[in-house]
């Protein structure tokens, strides 16, 4: 007990070092920066503008598609495929994508060493439908991107996507029962010719990524503009600066051999990038605010004989996905094998973030006890992690600085067999800022701990704007101006009550509009699984509604969440929100909105409103079962369907 208390005191001490009064405002997103140079860092380096300009546009002014999907990542592609599987035609679907290609995060991110951190056998969508066999247990970014491109071709969607385009605004027209949509498209050899046009759509489905807006810290000094060297964000890796090619998983970064490189950040991206930089940079300086929890990866090629066992039975893919979720929520029945059997499936305390049936509904007086139980559940795991770091990193002082002091649910755990080992190399230097972060930028480099570090290249591995920012309003997260019935925005609709949805995907007063969001939904470590659950559900709702109204080709169908139903669901979410007080012991990160997820000074009314923005508290598997029970009733309870 004495050691347990010491560790908890250390957690609190380290978390307080990192709390800043400005919270998430200590960062700025690249696309919304007032700096031309920072905004340029968000440009699409990968688009073949000449080839895209030559394509016939699948969407033009005055068109009226049945389904307009915003986003061509895993969520948007999955939405289109599940609609087709539900009986709709690919010709009824149009997809808008800001990038010059498909893949979402797997389009934008092409940094050296990029792999998925979740087993590919459960992460990649539609594996059972396509029969695709991943080459490794953890797929590379290149393999994932090419696989998603193949899915688009397989379901005849390649000519249904309008690239380099953004859905700016949608407005519901009660008379026509259509969404009036404003779209901006970029054209020209550099994508610098912008055209805005209008279309109408019967249904709009927004699939903004969970983490899609790259950010950098607001640094004092001369700013990035005043730095004489090169700077970029890992979400837009610049191979012109480093050498190598985005078509290689582990490229030769030959242009760095005489360079002093600084990488800012030590999260899930950095632990993949640092070993690659360490192999080529003359000197590498790793600027750390908070150490990552780095477990072993255990990468291996897919064995054909093992694959026959994995994919040998119908329904294997969903069963394996749910098996991982069961283990993470620590609720697998006795005797049920751990099918994934990796470090993710052993993180039984991660339920502190994603929910579980045991602590789904917690009375306020029980919250400290529940937090204590999760801390105790995580204690052996954390002791094992600290021992691993001490064993791998040869320099004792460096090992101590690389040791994380927070529970596993506070930051996404990372997995690598090379990151910690990199700090044993003589050219790799850890600049630990003791929770403060980098101080400023100078023309020659970065200042941390009051000391200037001269650099030739700065790599920002500083993540993305978190999903709980802006009150978890899905329209703001997607960057779409939304006006529902009577011109109301979602912010206005939620002003008095707080968040209100049915099952997390639909909002009363916003007919025929659907979202992908962690808000009031089941969540998990495998976000691709969460997205597919939502895709299947929404496609089911739309197909069933059309069948009730007269057929899948019927126009003038309106599908809207009933106010009473969304209020009942929102109350259920609020009642389960107490168990997520686990984040109050966390070090600041996007998971707890940089320490501002819960405002202890807020009035009881405001706290209840905040609680309604929580995920489903019983965990992803319980959420899936609840949705299946709802579907089995067969009458779209809580949804009003009308037809003209």
Automatic annotation (TrEMBL):
Q: What SUPFAM superfamilies does this protein's entry cite?
A: FAD/NAD(P)-binding domain
Provide an example Pfam family for this protein.
Answer: FMO-like
**Claim: Oxidoreductase is one of the keywords in the record:** yes
Q: Give the required cofactors.
A: FAD
The entry assigns this protein to a family as follows: Belongs to the FAD-binding monooxygenase family.
The record's section on PANTHER family has: FAD-BINDING MONOOXYGENASE AUSB-RELATED, L-ORNITHINE N(5)-MONOOXYGENASE-RELATED
Name it. Uncharacterized protein
């Amino acid at each position: 007990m004495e050691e347990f208390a010491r560790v908890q005191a250390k957690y609190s001490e380290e978390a307080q070092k990192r709390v800043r009064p400005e919270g998430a405002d200590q960062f700025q997103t690249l696309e919304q920066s007032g700096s031309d140079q920072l905004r340029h860092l968000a440009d699409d380096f990968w688009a073949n503008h000449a080839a895209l300009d030559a394509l016939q546009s699948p969407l033009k002014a005055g068109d009226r598609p049945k389904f307009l999907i915003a986003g061509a990542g895993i969520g948007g592609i999955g939405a289109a495929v599940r609609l087709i599987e539900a009986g709709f035609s690919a010709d009824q679907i149009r997809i808008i994508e800001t990038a010059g290609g498909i893949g979402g995060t797997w389009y934008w991110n092409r940094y050296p060493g990029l792999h998925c951190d979740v087993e590919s056998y459960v992460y990649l969508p539609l594996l059972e439908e396509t029969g695709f066999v991943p080459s490794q247990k953890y797929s590379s970014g290149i393999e994932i991107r090419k696989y998603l491109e193949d899915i688009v071709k397989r379901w005849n969607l390649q000519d249904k996507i309008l690239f380099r385009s953004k859905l700016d605004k949608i407005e519901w027209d009660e008379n026509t029962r259509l969404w009036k949509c404003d779209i901006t498209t970029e054209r020209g050899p550099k994508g610098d010719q912008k055209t805005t046009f209008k279309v109408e759509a019967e249904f709009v489905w927004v699939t903004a990524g969970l983490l899609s807006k790259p950010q950098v810290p607001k640094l004092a000094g001369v700013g990035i503009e005043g730095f004489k060297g090169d700077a970029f964000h890992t979400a837009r890796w610049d191979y012109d600066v480093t050498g190598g090619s985005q078509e290689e998983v582990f490229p030769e970064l030959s242009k760095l051999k005489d360079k002093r490189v600084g990488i800012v950040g030590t999260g899930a991206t950095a632990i993949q990038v640092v070993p690659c930089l360490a192999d080529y940079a003359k000197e590498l300086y790793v600027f750390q605010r908070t150490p990552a929890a780095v477990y072993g990866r255990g990468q291996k090629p897919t064995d054909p004989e093992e694959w026959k066992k994995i994919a040998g039975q119908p329904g294997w893919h969903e069963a394996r996905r749910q098996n991982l979720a069961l283990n993470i929520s620590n609720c697998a029945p006795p005797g049920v094998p751990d099918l994934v059997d990796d470090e993710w499936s052993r993180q039984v305390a991660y339920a502190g973030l994603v929910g579980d049936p045991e602590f789904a509904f917690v009375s306020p007086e029980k919250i400290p006890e529940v937090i204590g139980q999760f801390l105790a559940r995580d204690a052996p795991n954390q002791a094992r992690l600290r021992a691993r770091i001490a064993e791998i990193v040869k320099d004792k002082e460096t090992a101590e600085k690389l040791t994380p002091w927070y529970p596993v649910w506070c930051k996404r755990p990372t997995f690598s067999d090379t990151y910690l080992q990199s700090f044993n190399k003589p050219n790799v230097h850890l600049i630990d800022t003791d929770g403060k972060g980098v101080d400023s930028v100078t023309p020659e480099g970065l200042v941390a701990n009051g000391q200037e570090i001269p650099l030739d290249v700065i790599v920002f591995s500083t993540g993305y704007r978190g999903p709980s920012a802006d009150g978890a309003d899905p329209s703001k997260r997607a960057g779409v101006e939304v006006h529902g019935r009577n011109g109301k925005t979602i912010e206005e609709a939620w002003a008095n009550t707080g968040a209100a949805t049915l099952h997390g995907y639909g909002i009363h007063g916003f007919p025929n509009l659907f979202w992908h969001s962690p808000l009031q939904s089941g969540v998990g470590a495998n976000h691709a699984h969460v997205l597919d659950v939502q895709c299947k559900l929404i496609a089911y709702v739309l197909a069933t509604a059309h069948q009730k109204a007269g057929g899948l080709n019927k126009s003038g169908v309106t599908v809207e969440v009933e106010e009473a139903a969304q209020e009942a669901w929102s109350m259920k979410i609020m009642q389960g929100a107490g168990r997520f007080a686990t984040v109050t012991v966390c070090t600041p990160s996007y998971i707890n909105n940089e320490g501002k997820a819960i405002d202890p000074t807020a009035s009881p009314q405001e706290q209840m409103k905040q609680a309604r923005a929580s995920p489903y508290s019983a965990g992803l598997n319980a959420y899936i079962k609840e949705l299946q029970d709802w579907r089995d009733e067969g009458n779209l309870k809580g949804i009003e369907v009308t037809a003209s």
